[in-house]
Amino acid sequence: MKLFSLGVLLLPLLFLNACTRVPEGVEPVQNFQLQRYLGHWYEIARLDHSFERGLTLVTTDYSLNPDGSVAVTNTGYSKARDAWQLAEGRAEFVGPKNVGHLKVSFLGPFYSSYIVIALSDDYQYAMVSGYDKSYLWILSRTPTMPKDVLEQFLQKAKAMGYPVDQLIFPKQEAQPGNKPSAQPSR
Questions:
Q1: What does pTM read for this prediction?
Q2: Which residue has the higher pLDDT, 185 or 61?
Q3: Which of 57, 53, 83 is nearest to 177 (CA)?
Q4: CATH 2.40.128.20: does it fit domain 2-168?
Q5: Up-side HSE of residue 154: CA atoms within 13 Å toward CB?
């Protein structure tokens, strides 16, 4: 009976830990510099998930919280709802602060991997993975990305086993209406 009780207590911890792992064959960026990564990013491509389904004009803003964690603000426009959607969260490093492996939470104590797997030397373009290969984002500091850089990222993702043929390329045209403003993270 005691062994069963211990297993019941440890199972949720194992699940939560699994959500912050790095997928097999994937390496986080080394010599990562958070200060250079902070700021505004445009989503150039993503693998489809329910939490972003149908969104265009998707952007993410990263800023430093007073406690050293990272405030994450995602916005996207839903044409079906004719409304902006906003998600605010926080991210923290999983290990050393010079490795691009963070965990991000939008729901209280539940974290998921945020792994920077490719990054241009000038911090203008990035590719990010989740805890498995069904999560992939390609980001740019500008609404468009040079085709040669995009192709390099796509080839790298394909070589690591990501289903690049399933990527969605959301539009980044002129923004309708007023974009929501973020509230300070706590």
A1: 0.84
A2: 61
A3: 83
A4: yes
A5: 16
